[in-house]
Amino acid sequence: MKSATCSRIAVSKIAGLAIAGMLAAIGGLAIAEPVHGLSVFGDLKYKPGFAHFDYVNPRAPKGGKLVTIGTQALDTFDSFNAFILKGDAAQGILELVYDPLMTRATDEPDAMYGLIAESADVAADKRSVTFKLRAEAKFADGTPVTAEDCVFTLGALKQKGHPMYGSVLRNIATATAIDAHTVKYNFTGDELRDLPVVIASMPVLPKAFYDTHKFEETWLDRPLGSGPYKIGDYNQGTSVSFVRRSDYWAKDLNVMRGRFNFDEIRYDYFRLRTAAVQALKAGLLDLREEFTSKEWATGYDIAQVRDGRMLLKTLPDQNPSGTQGFWINTRRTKFSDVRVRQALDYAFDFEWANKHLFYNAYKRTESFFENSALKAVGAPSSGETSLLEPLRDKLAQDVFGEAALPPISDGSGSDRRMMSEAGRLLTGAGYAIKDGKRYTPSGEIFAVEFLIQDPSSERILGGFVRNLERLGIAASVRIVDEAQYQRRMKSFDYDMIGSRFSMQMTPGPELQNFFGSAAAASEGSYNLAGIKDPVIDQLIQRVATAESRAQLQTAGRALDRVLRAGHYWVPNWYKAAHTIAFWDKFNWPDKQPPFDTGVIDTWWYDKEKAAKLVTN
Q: 465 with 601, same domain?
């Protein structure tokens, strides 16, 4: 979420899963022979033997240091085990320390190319995939990456890993080492489309390392990976450095050429956003992505920017803008009525907040697939209707009308029309007013508490809380420390919580972890609203089994329509861009990949620029 209200959910654990590539798909392709890459519903952009990705500078110099904070970093860390629910893993481990079988091309929606694996062979019936590993692939201690390591990885992630792994890997039945450099994965069930790429994007873990390290426990021993970096110096909870490996086995491989150019990447941790901003201005940080609109609009009118030593750069973002909002915990009986949830939406005045708090920097989030072709618009198409009509008796009738949209206020901060409609909905649901206080049908005072870990979020929630109070609701904000926040979020101990999830260009089974019934009771899942609806489960399966881009979009729009009609959140805001402030000591390729900022991946340190900063 590009605001202070966002829960920076440990995508250090799961976006750290390299989920951008993991959730791609091979679609309707019947691959009958080994190929150098896997793509979605069509051809690969890059042919066999390509020299390098188009968005890199293959002659980029290696060297220098980048000190930053991760866009999804927690405020602290206590573990280097990034694969389990327990603990808070350090930012960057999955992206920098571990290589997957294949690596994503970030100028294609969801294509991957061989890294540890030189080829993939998907069976004609799509019920298995076989990878041929490169003989030269090595872990950092010089031992080879083998098929046995792949077999171990699947078993460990499914049996002991974070629940997210269990969700996305559930239909990968077995892994078999055919020989030292050949591994075959067999699939079960009907959702086969995504499974080859799910496996291709999994990190490969060293079996021998876990002979002395318990997979299910947190630890701060430096992990053994096969990736371009290893962990260097660190201070628990404060900073962690990743040092580029000069002996990295894949440094000259085409998919790695021009990438990972910094000798050192260090992530620093700050409990307060304001402290991170000041650290950047003081030169303690080199680069920071700014998520707060007020800070971006007013906080960088400083000498360092005016004289050109610090640069402000806006990078376009063509990814889906994701699901960002205040999630309503429907596990709690007081939120079970859809009218109550819709009333909460009416109490939030986005137009006022955008003008007075966000400097009109945002657009209102309307969809669970915002800024993508899966967003439902207007009335259902004939294709959507054909999916929804058999489910009509299980759906609210307004699903068959215009797609639900958040209300638009007059921008006053307390729009009488919106407040009146909120009151009408609450009263209709049996939440009556008595002596100025709103009561639930069971006679309890209707209270709503927002759980946050960043004090700056209070500024954004203030107007929302005031409007809820005007409706007679006992609204409050509870600030907790990061550790307690993570515990309560994982165990769903909250009324409402703010968060943003990035959706993929080609979503699939992972949607069960966000919106599926099974995930509603699975501790650590991302189903923050507790959505438990068999119709939604069916539509997720339709998305996951779509055999063409057109089918995917139709199923996605139908799912979006049903989710929006359920009012499981109060949608927030988005902007399709990254705003980055950094000291002028870096350079970058002429072409930015459309689905990534490219900073960690493709930028490099410029010695001449850095020297000028010192002399100035």
A: no
Are 422 and 343 contacting, i.e. CB atoms less than 8 angstroms apart? yes
Is residue 473 located within the same domain as residue 454? yes
- Report which secondary-structure segment, H or E, holds 560: helix 549-565
Q: Which of 37-41, 201-205, 342-346 has the lowest mean pLDDT?
A: 37-41
Query: Does residue 251 belong to any structural domain of this protein?
Result: no
Name 100's bridge partners. Answer: 203
Chain-wide mean pLDDT for the chain? Answer: 92
Give the span between the Cα atoms of 34 and 29, in whole angstroms: 13
Number of domains forming the structure of the chain = 3
Q: What is the residue range of 289's domain?
A: 271-317+577-615
What b/e readout covers 25-49, taking b as 16+ CB neighbours within 10 angstroms?
bbbebebeeebbbbbbbeebebeee
Asked whether residue 24 falls in the same domain as residue 71, the answer is yes
Query: Does residue 260 lie within any of the structural domains?
Result: no
CA distance 127 to 196: 9
Shared-domain flag, residues 307 and 339: no
544 domain residue, yes or no: yes
In the chain, what percentage of residues exceed pLDDT 90?
Answer: 82
pLDDT level of residue 505 (50, 70, 90 thresholds): confident
Distance CA 284, CA 178 (A): 51
Hey, what are 602's tokens? 């493709």
Per-residue pLDDT, 15: 38
Nearest Cα to Cα of residue 201 among 297, 101, 117: 101
Looking at residue 17, its pLDDT comes to: 38
Instruction: Please tell me whether residues 553 and 437 are part of one structural domain.
Output: yes
pLDDT: is 5 or 332 the higher one? 332
22 located within any domain: yes
Same-domain pairing of 538 and 566: yes
Distance of CA 158 to the CA centre of its chain: 20
Mean pLDDT of the 343-348 span:
98
